[in-house]
């Protein structure tokens, strides 16, 4: 009896098993039929059938497959939002499913169709981190590269690389960047980028894809970055050009001693010819291995290259140009020397705010450069209600400047008389003052035989608080004695050409207390300067001049974006990085760019008892 019961129970269980197997086979058969609908392009019908299976057989062993195929069918039927919701439902219900890699792949495709390209790359990255399927890995790799190349900006790509993406995705994004660089002609920079990325992510599954971009047979150590020197090495500015060049070459030599990728200088001499300078600039612009141009030096040639740079997208970095509106022409021109406007403004504001000067005179050459500076200086004074009572000029070839100084002195004497009268009667009107002064002069004229003339050196004038004298450097030896002889007791202020230590010391008895504004300052007591000077002397067999230092400091600034082996993704990226440097401390010149690419740092200096003292 017991044996019979066991046999009957076994028969019952076996029949249940057979029934279950039959049910699975029927479900499998339906699944394959629905997949066949999908494969033959009948996506709407396939999606309906998969949805029906999910509804009627929620416990089916094929439930995750039905969900996946439903979402894929909806995607193929262009129902992207519906498909996206189905995919997200899948992830919520089946977080441990082996189909997660395919679901994320599908989500990436959906976001791509919805023009949400960065989000698409993010979904593909998740799929890539989950899958071991070689075919899917290859598909995703190609999709990420193509999307990054053709649908994303360089900024978008960089932002994605800074997220917590997988190493594989970061390598793929780098490959996309490198391919863009190669298309632009920057193959060497592309190779640098690939090599550094592979060094950072050595286990990537896309090493072969990345290495295909490296130029065959080119050794790592052969990669060179190029900077062009576009300066005058002949003609009237040849001496300055040679000095700037020597300083720049010394900076590059120092940089290359420890650089991951050496820099090569391409030197172009335009002499005095603006046409030749423009031709050289356009030729250099066609060589995409050249990141930037150091130069030109002159304002007019700098202006021509600045205008071209907006079209060529090829950065120009001038160490000496001073025109006020050069950087307004383009975003690719950098003015490492501050403008005339900035110098005049800073000096005028210092005179009013710090020195408390209440009355001014000016004395300057009749030359456009100086006239602009004087105009800006007087404009600032007038805006602050500080009067400029007299302006005198001289021609560049003049050496006898006695008459101009005497004119200033006569006006000073008149204001001394006015100040004296008004100290007695503050309410006296100008006409009455003029009448009294005319009578005073007649009286002095009658008495001049018996004593000194009114404008002689024996009579000091203290009524003009400040005199602005921007000059040529070579005129110091003519002007300094005139300052002493005129005996106008005033605070003299000058431009950067007064920064000539040798001439200042020769004339120290005449111009003690002179304040001037310069583009930099050599602190001969500083360790940095002494160290540089000693190294320069050993290498160049000469003591560095100010123009050597300008070339050196400016070239170091130009090389700053390349520090630590930074990857430069072409000229646009280099230009962006140059703008982001912030304050740069040179040996002679400090550099701090404003939003117009102009150096706003200026140095106020005072000459006191044979010493040049910085005031800021």
Written overview of the protein:
By secondary structure, the chain is of the alpha/beta class. The chain has three domains: 36-215, Serine Threonine Protein Phosphatase 5, Tetratricopeptide repeat; 224-337 and 527-599, Response regulator (Rossmann fold); 341-518, Response regulator (Rossmann fold, 3-Layer(aba) Sandwich), CATH 3.40.50. It contains 23 helices and 14 strands. The chain has helices at residues 2-39, 43-56, 63-76, 80-93, 100-113, 117-130, 134-151, 154-161, 167-183, 187-200, 207-211, 238-258, 274-286, 299-312, 340-353, 368-383, 402-424, 430-447, 476-486, 501-506, 527-540, 546-559, 570-579, and strands at residues 225-231, 263-269, 290-294, 316-318, 333-335, 360-365, 388-394, 466-469, 491-494, 515-518, 584-585, 590-591, 603-608, 611-614. Helix 6 (117-130) runs antiparallel to helix 7 (134-151) and helix 8 packs antiparallel against helix 9 (167-183).
């Amino acid at each position: 009896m017991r044996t019979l019961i066991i046999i009957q129970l076994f028969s019952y269980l076996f029949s249940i098993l057979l029934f279950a197997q039959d049910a699975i086979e029927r479900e499998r058969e339906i699944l394959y039929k629905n997949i066949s609908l999908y494969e033959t392009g009948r996506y709407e019908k396939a999606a309906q059938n998969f949805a029906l299976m999910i509804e009627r057989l929620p416990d089916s062993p094929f439930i995750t497959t039905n969900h996946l195929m439903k979402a894929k069918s909806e995607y193929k039927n262009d129902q992207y939002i519906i498909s996206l919701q189905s995919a997200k439902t899948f992830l919520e219900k089946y977080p441990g499913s082996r189909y997660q890699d395919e679901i994320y792949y599908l989500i990436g495709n959906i976001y791509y169709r919805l023009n949400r390209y960065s989000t698409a790359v993010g979904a593909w990255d998740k799929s890539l981190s989950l899958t071991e399927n070689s075919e899917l890995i290859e598909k995703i790799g190609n999709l990420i590269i193509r999307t990054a190349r053709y649908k994303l900006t360089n900024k978008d790509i960089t932002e994605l690389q800074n997220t917590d993406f997988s190493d594989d995705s970061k390598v793929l994004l780098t490959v996309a960047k490198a391919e863009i660089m190669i298309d632009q002609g920057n193959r060497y920079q592309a190779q640098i980028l690939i090599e550094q990325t592979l060094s950072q992510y050595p286990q990537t599954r896309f090493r072969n894809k990345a290495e295909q971009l490296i130029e065959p047979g080119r050794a790592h150590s052969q990669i060179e970055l190029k900077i062009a020197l576009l300066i005058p090495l002949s003609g009237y500015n040849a001496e300055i050009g040679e000095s700037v060049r020597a300083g720049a070459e010394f900076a590059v030599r120092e940089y290359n001693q420890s650089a991951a990728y050496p820099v090569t200088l391409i030197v172009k001499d335009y002499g005095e010819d603006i046409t030749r300078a423009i031709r050289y600039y356009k030729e250099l612009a066609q060589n995409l291995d050249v990141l930037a141009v150091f130069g030109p030096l002159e304002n007019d040639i700098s202006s021509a290259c600045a205008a071209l740079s907006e079209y060529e997208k090829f950065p120009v970095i001038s160490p000496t140009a001073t025109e006020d509106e050069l950087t307004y022409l383009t975003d690719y021109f950098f003015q490492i020397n501050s403008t005339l406007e900035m110098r005049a403004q800073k000096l005028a504001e210092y005179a009013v705010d710090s020195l408390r000067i209440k009355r001014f005179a000016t004395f300057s050459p009749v030359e456009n450069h100086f006239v602009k500076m004087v105009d800006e200086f007087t404009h600032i004074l007038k805006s602050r209600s500080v009067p400029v009572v007299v302006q005198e000029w001289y021609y560049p070839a003049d050496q006898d400047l006695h008459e101009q100084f005497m004119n200033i002195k006569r006006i000073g004497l008149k204001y001394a008389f006015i100040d004296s009268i008004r100290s007695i009667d503050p309410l006296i009107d100008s006409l009455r003052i003029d009448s009294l002064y005319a009578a005073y002069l007649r009286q002095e004229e009658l008495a001049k035989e018996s004593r000194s003339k009114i404008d002689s050196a024996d009579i000091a004038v203290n009524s003009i608080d400040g005199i602005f004298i921007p000059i040529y450097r070579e005129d110091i030896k003519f002007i300094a004695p005139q300052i002493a002889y005129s005996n106008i007791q005033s605070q003299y202020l000058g431009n950067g050409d007064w920064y000539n230590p040798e001439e200042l010391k020769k004339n120290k008895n005449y111009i003690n207390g002179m304040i001037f504004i310069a583009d930099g300052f050599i602190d001969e007591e500083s360790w940095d300067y002494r160290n540089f000077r000693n190294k320069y002397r050993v290498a160049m067999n000469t003591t560095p001049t100010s123009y050597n230092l300008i070339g050196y400091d400016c070239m170091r600034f130009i090389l700053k974006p390349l520090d630590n082996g930074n990857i430069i993704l072409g000229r646009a990226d280099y230009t962006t990085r140059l703008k982001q440097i912030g304050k740069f401390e040179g040996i002679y010149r400090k550099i701090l760019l404003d939003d117009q690419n102009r150096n706003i740092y200026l140095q106020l200096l005072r000459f006191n008892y044979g010493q040049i003292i910085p005031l800021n």
